[in-house]
Amino acid sequence: MKINPEYQSRRLPEPQPVFNENPALVDPQAAEPNLGDDSFLDSYSRTVGAVVNRVAPSVVNIRVEGKEGRGGGGSGFVIAPDGFILTNSHVVHDGAKFEVTLHDTRSFPAQLIGEDPDTDLAVIRIDAPQLQHVRLADSAGIRVGQIAVAIGSPYGFQQTVTSGIVSALGRSMRSESGRLMDDIIQTDAALNPGNSGGPLVNSAGEVIGVNTAVILPAQGICFAIGSNTAQFVAGWLIKDGRIRRSAIGVAGQNVPLHPRVVRFHKLLRERGVLIAEIERHSPAARAGMRQGDIIVGYKGQPIASIDDLHKKLVASEIGVPSPVMLLRQTEKLFVMVIPEELKTSTRKAAR
Fold first, then answer.
1. Closest-CA residue to 51 (of 224, 206, 217, 184)
2. Distance (Å, rounded) from C-alpha 25 to C-alpha 304?
3. What is the pLDDT of residues 38-94, one digit of tens each?
4. Interatomic CA distance for residues 328 and 343, integer angstroms
5. How many Å apart are CA 74 and CA 91, to the nearest integer?
6. I need a labelling partner for 343 at 20 to 30 A (CA). Which of 97, 190, 204, 311 fits?
7. Cβ distance 334 to 239 under 8 Å?
8. Which residues are catalytic?
9. Are 122 and 92 in contact (CB under 8 A)?
């Protein structure tokens, strides 16, 4: 390429000195002398980093060997220095052997302490020294929009961190046992298979939930069991190896009520639970309930669904006489029922 002689003869003006008392305006390197990498992180990044540093040493990878030789796994986290680890029930269910790998790559065999499929929670235990455990927050204080950090082992990639916010509170979802789980946290912190059982953490490094499920193929819709539920269930599993619940011995289905019946009896709901089956010698049978009756109230509270009835049949109701309001054809009547403890073997049939 030929260069025009006219441009060759032109010379740029000599640079003029700039006088300023602030050397940073002259020398860019003088503005940030001897800065470390942390100086380039914004406050959000520093918060997430601090959370990970505090919680990650307590997060574990769980490998499960099934009774038929099939393998699986998930995540968990240490909740006590003596080796108790909280995870999901569906991670360890039907497992024959369990192996836990810690943050520092040490591996230990684990023992199943107890599981509760109705809340999808389980506790296992390892015999290992120098375990760092997490702190559980009060999930009643969670607010939509606050930072949420998930740590786990999706697809076996240990110590994977994702972050987002709490998207919604008070969600409900079905456990694998069919029972409705309440007070579920929705987050957009990305979860994948293998994240199950890992912690969902707030900006203070406290666990606010146990990661449990995602909606596929949707993106950014993930769920965690609230830490208050987790703390309650874990306490009972460590103490007794199971959760106690009550039952009255009926199988039912949700049905609508005729508007005239609702108005005549001044009912608060337009639906109830139709009794489809009554177990022999059950509390319901002894109370005089019949197949075809519709349960519309329990201890003065309206019952519009099987889930409403489940919420009332907690452990504290075992052995306590309680009034049940029924509709028998068009007649309203009350019976006294004394719930019994729900047996594991009849958990899906008896309510």
1. 206
2. 72
3. 555 688 888 999 999 999 999 999 999 988 777 888 999 999 999 999 999 999 998
4. 28
5. 6
6. 97
7. no
8. 90, 120, 196
9. yes
